[in-house]
Amino acid sequence: LFSPIQMDLDGTAGNQGLKSIAVVPGTSTILTLHYEGTTAIRGFGAKLEYDYGLVEIALEAFETQIGEGSLPLTRSMGDGVVEIGAVLMDDSAFDAMQVATVPLTLLGEITEPTQVILTEVTLNLADGPDQRIATNEVIVLEPDAFVKGDFDGNGKVDFLDFFAFADAFGNPDA
């Protein structure tokens, strides 16, 4: 099923399409939502389903990037189901862009991957009736696996690891 809202686990600007990441229990990973539809919208809603015994979605840290004067909306609908979204409170609208971020935290050790599933998207279209779209957009949180050279434990080797290496190089106490 096509979803005009796409999920991404890469923290850099733009939708990098990262759908799976190794996570360390107790640390936060930022889930980014991107609107990639072709019609201008004034607001969006996203329903996420997940295993609440393994994952926590920090609704209090939800942020929207759709514009000044937007009203962010969050609600827990029960165990393992949340809705997040936002609407512009003026006459403006937006096209394809990053629309929101929300932290995910793995609550404990896992031996098998766990999923966060975007099951429904609601769009407040700028020039048309609102739309509710059933979808099955999935991201996967994988058990932390040691990655050679990953000094900060974020599941990838990047400049932060290089800097940690460089700072410790030649230091007998490091």
Description:
The protein is mainly β and 174 residues long. The protein is 6% helix and 47% strand. It is built from 1 helix and 11 strands. The protein has one helix spanning 159-168, and strands at 5-8, 20-23, 28-35, 41-50, 55-57, 63-64, 70-76, 81-88, 97-106, 114-125, 131-143. The strands form 2 sheets. The chain has a 6-stranded mixed β-sheet, with no helix packed on it. A hairpin with a 4-residue loop joins strand 7 (70-76) and strand 8. 25% of the residues are buried. The model has no long low-confidence stretch (mean pLDDT 91).
Question: Care to give the gist of this entry?
Answer:
With 174 residues, this protein is mainly beta. The chain has one helix at residues 159-168, and strands at 5-8, 20-23, 28-35, 41-50, 55-57, 63-64, 70-76, 81-88, 97-106, 114-125, 131-143.
Notable traits:
single chain; 174 residues; mainly beta; 5-stranded antiparallel sheet; 1 helix; 11 strands
Oligomeric state of shown chains: single chain
Write down how many β-strands occur, each being a DSSP E stretch of 2 or more residues.
Answer: 11
Strands in their spatial order, largest beta sheet: 2-11-10-4-8-7
Query: Can you tell me the residue ranges where pLDDT is under 50 for at least 5 consecutive residues?
Result: none
How far apart are the first and last residues' alpha carbons, in Å?
50 Å
**Mean pLDDT across all residues, rounded?**
91
Number of helices: 1
What class would the helix/strand composition place it in?
mainly beta
| Overall outline | globular
